[in-house]
Amino acid sequence: MGYRKLTEEDIGVLREICSEDRVYVGSEINEDFSHDEMVEYGKFMPEVVVEAKSIDEVSRIMKYAYKNRIPVTPRGSGTGLCGGAVPIHGGILLSLALMDRILEIDEDNMTAVVEPGVLLMDLTKAVAEKGLMYPPDPGEKSATIGGNVMTNAGGMRAIKYGVTRDYVLGMEVVLANGEILELGGKIVKNSSGYSIKDIIVGSEGTLGIVTKLTLKLMPLPERMISLLVPFGGLDECIEAVPKIIRSQIIPTAIEFMEREVIEAAEEYLGKKFPDKSADAYLLLSFDGSDTEEIEKIYERVAEVCLDAGAIDVFIADTDERQESIWDARGAFLEAIKSSTPSMDECDVVVPRDKIPEFVKFVDTLEERYEIRLRSFGHAGDGNIHVYVCKDDLDDETWKHRRDKVMEAMYNKSIELGGQVSGEHGIGHAKIGYLNDALGHVYMDLMRSIKLAFDPEGILNPGKVF
Amino acid sequence: MSMFTFCLVKTYKVKYNLYIDILKGGRGVDILVCIKQVPATTKVKVDEKTGSLVRDGVESKLNPYDLYALETALKLREELGGSVTVITMGPPQAQAIIREAYMMGADYGCILSDRAFAGADVLATAYTLSQGIKALDRDFDLIICGRQTTDGDTAQVGPSIAEFLQIPHVTWVREIKAVDEHKIVVQQDMGDSYAIVELMYPCLITVDKDILEPRLPSYRLKLKTADRPIPMYSLANLEDKDEERYGLNGSATQVERIFPPQENVHQEIWEGTSEQLTSNIFNMLKDKKYI
């Protein structure tokens, strides 16, 4: 798919649309725009970076790009993990980071209306001040809501509250040709035709550019408690997960972690973890309206854990205690990243009752392929993150072993009825795996949808397909 | 005269191989930890009219600084053997933090609770605790307190207890350098320097935040200690029964007014390239003479 190079004239038009100081070319462009969090997937410099501030600007930019067939890559904070917001075909990198206003928090309808550049952490804080909660809780709090919506981000609380898509009630979207479309709204139910907003959620910027979002909020639970559950080994630990789920008590989170990752986080943060006596841990969270209610619930789960062979169940019932655990949990990705010169990651999701089988399978791969693997993840919703570390392998050996081990994991996930990506998306890095997993009928249908939205193929080209 | 004179201050070469002096097969060390129940939130509201804390609906917790004291005691017991006892002064519901200390591994606990103790300032609190400590049927080798509480923040109760008990003490301990059944060697954070101090038992130390990472309460210990008694001591159990020494009567200071500090809401938002912003920050810090 060839695109022509941008000309002085193109830049001039963009400068006319946005003010001059929000259009960057050549050496003015920050190198960060050429990649996301995974530098491993390559660097691609845009020809121009435009920081839009309004829907009008986005619409006019798209009209011009459409007419002149210029590729446009929308981008938030650039915290993605699959190269989704990276301009692999050059062209315009359209940053929405400056569209960061929280326009309204409606306590009567329990909704928030925000621009796409609002950071997750800022939204969480703003709604909490009104006693409300935006439940999706991806690990990267400096991601934008727009980015979260585009990857249908999941996060820690998915097991109880679901994922980003479940909280998008409405959106304002600019189509490839610059037309503006309002979708959904502050309504709880909707049976009015195809749900286009739900196709746009998770479309990774390939179908349209979201410029405003209406999000569903929930009452903020008054109390939260976490349990740190140590196990003698990985098998017992991971086998306890389906038992907890079967007990019909729904924690807000079930995370699994191993000692090596905890130690890496300790080193990275320079802060000690409250327990290191065991090889593997589950981290459970519960929320509720009062301490007694939560206590009753967690005691039942604690008994399930002890029956499943847990060494003990540690109770984190204060802010300090929760922080001592969750700070480490939040640093896992960065800690693993800093431990190796290069890495690749696998974000598969499997049915929840297949989690033990998948995790145990991954545990055998390190030896079989002679490569270091680190894994942790949302055991409760079946979404496991496995990181393949290059360490001191030479480039050729690294590529060979990495490809083998990644293929083995994706094949296993599909065999178990899983999917390629639980929450990080496809970007340009995982396209091959998606093709293999979904098959040509599904991929052809997606291509037809893409064609209907973007006949010129200018919206984030080279992603997902 | 200050009990500081009892401290033998020596300078040691830093030894990273700790606990080298452990005497095997000894009786161990009996440790007492003083703990306090405080509001569970850092956002305590102050009634502007009455100047008192709004405690309605506010949950309580064990003072976070005391967790470091308790963790230090539990680690020393693991190394040396002996026992860990916790003591608190407060209303009957403060039993909850004794229970919590049991769930972390404390062996014994005791609560000092009496209407006569209410309204105590630092002096009266320390006196009550010192009387309570004397009333316990155990001679403690080492008393450990947290550096301060999160509600009062005076950091004075620990040292005052030591004065009343006439034992040496060291505050702001950031590291235990060596310990055995007769003495403890600690590193004290003096702000701009460290002091290495050796203390013979009995003595008292207050430990700083982050001396060790506190363990979490254990559900197994919760089950195991569910029926463990928490003896409650009142004025009648203490050696000095003079009501004038306790509570509001025994307090040398009185709170005149509590008010929230003024919040500084001044904000400046800068925009620009990383280079511009970097030089902006540099110039601002230079102008303000921070650098």
In short:
The complex is a heterodimer of chains A (465) and B (291). By secondary structure, chain A is an alpha+beta fold.
Could you characterize what this model shows?
The complex is a heterodimer of chains A (465) and B (291). With 465 residues, chain A is α+β, with helices and mostly antiparallel strands. Chain A folds into four domains: 8-97, Uridine Diphospho-n-acetylenolpyruvylglucosamine Reductase, domain 2 (2-Layer Sandwich); 102-219, 2-Layer Sandwich (Uridine Diphospho-n-acetylenolpyruvylglucosamine Reductase, domain 3); 223-333, 2-Layer Sandwich (Alpha-Beta Plaits); 340-425, Alpha-Beta Plaits. Chain A has 14 helices and 18 strands. Chain A has helices at residues 8-17, 55-68, 120-128, 145-151, 158-161, 196-200, 234-246, 259-269, 291-307, 319-330, 332-337, 355-369, 395-415, 431-453, and strands at residues 23-25, 48-51, 72-75, 92-95, 102-106, 111-114, 132-133, 168-174, 180-184, 209-216, 218-219, 223-231, 253-258, 280-288, 314-316, 343-346, 372-378, 383-389. In chain A, strands 5-6-10-8-9 form a five-stranded antiparallel β-sheet. In chain A, strand 17 (372-378) and strand 18 (383-389) form a beta hairpin. In chain A, helix 7 runs antiparallel to helix 12 and helix 12 (355-369) packs antiparallel against helix 13 (395-415). In chain A, 50% of the residues are buried. In chain B, strand 8 and strand 9 form a beta hairpin. The model of chain B is unreliable at 1-25 (pLDDT under 50). Chain B has six helices and twelve strands. Chain B is of the alpha/beta class. In chain B, helix 3 (122-135) crosses helix 4. The longest helix of chain B has 17 residues, at 64-80. In chain B, 24% of the residues lie in helices and 22% in strands. At the A-B interface, helix 9, strand 15 and helix 10 of A face helix 5 of B.
